[in-house]
Amino acid sequence: MLLLAVSFGVSLAGVQLALGPIIETNKVNETLEKVPELVLGKELSEKMTAQNQSLEIAAHRVAVTKAGQAKTYSVYEARYAGELRGWVVKTKGQGYADAIELLVGLSPDLKSLTGLFVLDQKETPGLGNKIVTMDWRGQFIGAPTSRSLVVVKSGAKQPGEIDAVTGATISSNSVTAMINTAIGDLRKPLTEMEKGKDNNG
């Protein structure tokens, strides 16, 4: 029995090792496909596609050190005809069941959220996994970044308040905390990155 368990574990690790790079490549491709919608909104991104227009997307790795801890974010800079149209940040954190990976759309001035996409999650089916639905994700669009997002159970009324998924407060809090952290970490480096381009231009 022990031998069977070890054999199964080794086989599973081998499959994971083989599929790992493929899964990551697929995530990168999916991210690049989602950038226009997360920055411009679905309607405008579809209109651009229909007119054979596209955004210029530049990928950056942005390192942040906070409280002695180093963290690196993947950030996608989206431009059209040289004009900055927005940013998409990839971030990851712990959900209720497992890690959650997000793509967060931000306005050029980093003052509001322009979109949210769940790139990967393993939350409880029928509860926490409802974070992937547009009904839930849509409430983040237009939310201000000047204050931290707050999850509420009784119905969001104020800007920056997010309705929790019923029965999945932990998943809801995890997503909002990841977004708040990413914005806090990246506001200064992304602002400086854009200022540097303006000064050099």
Could you explain how this protein is built, in words?
This protein has 201 residues and is an alpha+beta fold. The protein is 42% helix and 28% strand. It is built from four helices and seven strands, in the order ααβββββαββα. The protein has helices at 2-40, 42-50, 134-137, 169-200, and strands at residues 56-66, 69-80, 83-94, 99-106, 113-120, 150-152, 161-163. The strands form two sheets. The protein has a five-stranded antiparallel beta sheet, with helices on both faces. It has a two-stranded parallel ribbon with strand order 6-7. Strand 2 (69-80) and strand 3 (83-94) form a beta hairpin. Helix 1 crosses helix 2.
What descriptive keywords fit this protein?
single chain; 201 residues; two-stranded parallel sheet; 42% helix; 28% strand; globular
Quick summary:
This protein is of the alpha+beta class.
Strand content: 25-35%
Question: Based on DSSP secondary structure assignment, what is the total number of beta strands?
Answer: 7
Low-confidence stretches: none
Numbering strands along the chain, what is their spatial order in the largest sheet? 1-2-3-4-5
Helix content: 40-55%
How many helical elements? 4
N-to-C series of helices and strands: HHEEEEEHEEH
Judged by helices, strands and strand pairing, the structural class is alpha+beta
- Compute the gyration radius: what is it? 19 Å
Arithmetic mean pLDDT: 89
List the helices and strands and how they pair.
Elements lengths: L1 H39 L1 H9 L5 E11 L2 E12 L2 E12 L4 E8 L6 E8 L13 H4 L12 E3 L8 E3 L5 H32 L1
Parallel strand pairs: 6-7
Antiparallel strand pairs: 1-2, 2-3, 3-4, 4-5
Helix pairs in contact: 1-2
